[in-house]
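Honest question from a wet-lab person: if I give you the sequences of every part of a complex, can you actually get the arrangement of the whole thing, not just the pieces? Trying it with mine:
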Amino acid sequence: DARVTQTPRHKVTEMGQEVTMRCQPILGHNTVFWYRQTMMQGLELLAYFRNRAPLDDSGMPKDRFSAEMPDATLATLKIQPSEPRDSAVYFCASGLTRGQPQHFGDGTRLSIL
Amino acid sequence: AQTVTQSQPEMSVQEAETVTLSCTYDTSENNYYLFWYKQPPSRQMILVIRQEAYKQQNATENRFSVNFQKAAKSFSLKISDSQLGDTAMYFCAFMKQDTGNQFYFGTGTSLTVIP
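Yes, you can. This is the full assembly:
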């Protein structure tokens, strides 16, 4: 079965460091989503790409977060500088348009000390 | 804006029994899609079931079925013959028809199946 691949699965780093999370969407999917999951806030949509173009990043703190799709096989989410409140599980999902489900990666568990 | 409400933060059910998880949503759209996702302790997000709003027939996938009430904007998930592996967080999600496949998620219901 085709899968969304996220790396790394776990990341522990100190406050102030740059963090880069990567996502390989399922081949042929034209939409990519980044979510953040915490106990307090649940699932939050951070960014949304269609055909590699950013459509919505209103959920993302602009001063420190950035999301890009340098090509159709790679999406990245960067945090610079990282803060303890960024500790969460970050999910990437991909899909096709028009009512098709999103397929999720296994997530990156990020801990900022 | 679309909102999705799951009013039961936690539920439990005895193994082999049936449980129903509730989900309501608010939208002015006429055509849309609804989904249930399951997130077990392994934290994977797994699609359980999908419903198209224009279809009156309720979707079914093995032991999982939905009760879709469009007028009431209700989309509940019924799990029959509950198994220990059904222990998970369950998320209801809404998708508009005409804006790609962006989801609006509920806050989730944590289900525990008791042996």
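Two things worth pointing out. Chain B has a mean pLDDT of 94. The radius of gyration of chain B is 14 Å.
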